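Give me the fold.
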Amino acid sequence: MTQAGTSGLVLNEKLLFEHSEPGRKGYSLPTLDVPEATLPAELCRDEITGFPELSEVDVVRHFTRLSTWNYGVDSGFYPLGSCTMKYNPKVNEVAARMPGLADIHPATPQALTQGALALIYHLQEDLAEMSGFSAVTIQPAAGAQGELAGMLTIRAWHEAQGSTRSKVLIPDTAHGTNPATAALAGYDVVPIASDGVLSLAEVEAHMDDDVAALMVTNPNTLGLFETNIEPICKLVHERGGLVYCDGANFNALMGIARPGDMGIDVMHFNLHKTFSTPHGGGGPGAGPIGVAEHLVPFLPKPLVVRDGEAYRLDDDRPQSFGRLLAFNGNFGVLIRAYAYIRSMGAAGLKRATEMAVLNANYIRARLEDVYDLPYKNRSLHEVVFSDKNLAGGCHTLDVAKRLIDYGYHPPTIYFPLVVKGAIMIEPTETESREILDEFCDAMLVIAQEASDNPDLLHNAPTVPKVRRLDETTAARKPKLKWEG
C-alpha cells in the first residue's frame, strides 16, 4: 500500500499482484481508491524517528503476555474482605452493553427513555422489598457517596424537626469510611467500643440529647451479626436519634433478614459488591440508599417515580436535601444489578447468601486451630484471624506476601483496626469447595513455613515479576508524577 499524494490511498497492484490467475487472462487486483477525506491529515505520518518496526503478531503477543502478569477475578481467587470483588456473570455484562441501554445520552428527554426509567424504578422497588425500606433512590454513584447521602438525609430530617444535634456515634467495628462520612456531613464523631458486637449498655452510655445518629455496620467488619440491633435501634429512637446502617455487607443478609424490619432508618447498598459489577481500582460503583417512611421526603432529588403507565424524574421535592449528581448514577452498574436480581430470583438470591456464609465458615473451620481467631462469635460472610500464633517473627504482611508465591491475591490485612495483625478473609458465595481447600492448604503450609523456615515468608514474594516493595517509604515519600 502506498500513499499517492493528493489522490488518496491506492493499492499498488503491480507490487501485490504481478501475475495472472490460471484460466483468466490478464487478471489483476482492482484499484482501491479511498478519498483522502476519510483519513485526516493529522493521522498521516511519513516517519517517526526510532519507531520500532514490529509485526502484528509481535504486538499481540506482547500485550497478551502483559495481561497474564496481572491478577484478576477471572484468573484466580480474591479473598479480600468487606468490599470483595465477587464473580460477575458475563450475561450481565452483555446486558449492560446493549445499544438501547448503553448508548442513551443522559440529556435525552424522558419521553424517549421510558425503558431506562422503568428499569431504574423496578430496581428501586426490588431493593426496597429485599431490605424492608419504604423507598430507595439509586442516585449515589458509589458506596461512600451513598453513606453521605444517607447522613445528609438524616441531617435534613433533624433540621425539619428544629433539631441542631451535632454528634454521631460510630462503633470500632464500623467500616472505615463511616467516620469520614459523618465528619463530611458536618457532625462530630464519637467512637464507641464493642466486644465483637455492640452492646446496648455501651450505646446507652453515650446516647445524649446531642446525638443525631448511630452509624452501625451490620454484619460488622468482623463478619459478625449485631445481635442487639433491635433494642439498640429502639433506644436510639427513644432518645431522638436515628440509625444509619452501612449495607456493604448486605450479601450476608439478602433473602434472610431485612434491615428495615430491625428498626434501621437508612442504609446504603453496594451494588458493585452484592449485585454483580466488577469493582477494582476504585470504580465504577453504585450506592443506592433505602430509607424508612419518615425519611422519604428528604431523599436527594430527582427520584424516579411511576405516573400511571409512564415513568418520570420527580424534582418537586421541597424537603429534599438537594442533588448529588448532574444525572442519575452509574447506569451501567444499575443494569447489571437489575439483570442479576431478575436472573437469580428470590430463591437464587437467598441461596447466594447461604453460600457466602457457608464458605466463610468453611474457611474458619479449616484454619481456626492454626491461626488465632480473636472473636469466637458465629461468623457470617467473612472471618477475621490475627497473626498472634505465627512463629519465627512472622507477621500478617509476611503471610500476605507469601500467598502471592502460591498464586493467590492476599486477603484484606490490618483491618479492622480492632484486631491487631488482622487477616480478613471473605470467599464470597461463588467459589467452589475445591478452590477453598486449595487456598486453605496454602494458608496452612505458610503457617508451617513460619515455624520451619521463616525467611521464606520474610523474603516473599519471590515468584512474581516484582518483589516486595518498600511500602513504608512509598507511603511517606510517594512519587506522584511520572519520572522518565
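The CA atoms of residues 163 and 191 lie 22 Å apart.
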